[in-house]
Amino acid sequence: MVSEFLASGVRRPQPFGSPVLYTRPLLPDLESLQGHLEDVWRAQYLTNGGQKAQELEKRLRALLGAQHLSLHANGTLALALALRAMNLSGEVITTPFTFAATPNSIVLAGLTPVFADIDPDSFNLDPAAVEAAITPETSAILAVHVFGRVCDVEGLQRVADKHGLKLLYDAAHAFGAEIDGRPISSFGDAVMYSLHATKLFHTAEGGALATWDADLHARIERSRNFGFGPDGLVEAAGMNSKMSELNALLGLEVLPLVEEERRKRTNVAAIYRSRLSQAPGVFIPEPQDGVVDSRQYFPIFIREAEFGLSRDALVDAMAEFNVIARRYFYPLCSEFPAYAANAAGSHLPVARHVVQEVMCLPYFGGLSDDDAQRICDIILFIHQGGR
Ligand code: T4K
What we know:
- The protein is an alpha/beta fold.
- It contains 14 helices and 13 strands.
- It starts with 29 loop residues before the first helix and ends with a helix.
- The chain binds ligand T4K.
- Residues 21-25, 74-76, 98-99, 101-102, 144, 170, 172-173, 194, 196-198, 207, 324 line the site of ligand T4K.
């Protein structure tokens, strides 16, 4: 029998009636979508660079401050394709604290991922660790703005320039992020955005690649269409990474909703921060100076000794209240069987520590103030010994 009250007199919060997932996709008005679907039906043009995809490319180019931008079937293919289009060889240094798609894209491009340690504040690649991991085989750095927290872009660029390396960013979590007024599309040689349903802005499945390099952009455009050039000939084997008209249409309908969604998430974040930052053993990273936050994830870190419970135990206990938090990104990619050999010589003390404590709270605009407050009540109740 679960007790309704703790010894301190705190009442057990009501579990949610149905699971509160850690994210929900932003959905446009169905009627509006259906209306625009008629355009696609009339045109009878479903993919291969149709009008909707061209329109979305144009809008995103402006919104993300990209010189050149191409849409893709998903973010993983987009990243692999960018790596291939850069004519790299050998090793690519990346972070172990990311989703599997990051190192997977390196392997898909025929290259070898090498893991370097992360910075304890940004949770992103530490430029000094990157430099220490460089070998004569290294040709590029693939950095991730994890959780939308931005990398040390200057430090990474310095290392890339000093060693003649290409620098790519996986900005899957960083749609619309800016550093000191500069869009993150403008850093590095190429920047990938995931437009998956779980992302702030999405096209159900999709990806976008931004670059300032016109030649690279042209190679990427050829490569997403099997390698065909304007003369109809294939100079280098390409992939099929085109975005369909249906996905692009969905994106065009979702795009006007993004700012409102960001505002709602900012509100949820403020509730989480004000209620949880005082709890012993709950660490919430401070916002980064001069950075416009993408509002993609809300990570917290559970320090077991002070909190009285491990991160894993908290995630399980929250599930009993129907709150589904996620252990993003656990385990480290370097701990996946697929990457054991790549990680053999890696020294990753910061990443190994961070990955034991991190979890992401439910974070989407559909959460009301009361929902966010109740999630905090539940976490604090569990912290005080309640189940
Ligand atoms: N680089 C990084 C750093 C990434 O995080 C990702 C993708 C990529 C590259 C590659 O980009 P893409 O190739 O995906 O464009 C999800 C996503 O599938 C993946 O896009 C994302 N990162 C990754 C972090 O998360 P799962 O397996 O954790 O998603 P799933 O199915 O468990 O869904 C998450 C939650 O969202 C659940 O609570 C259910 C809810 N949900 C999900 C979908 C798909 C919905 O409510 N509706 C939906 O339609 O991978």
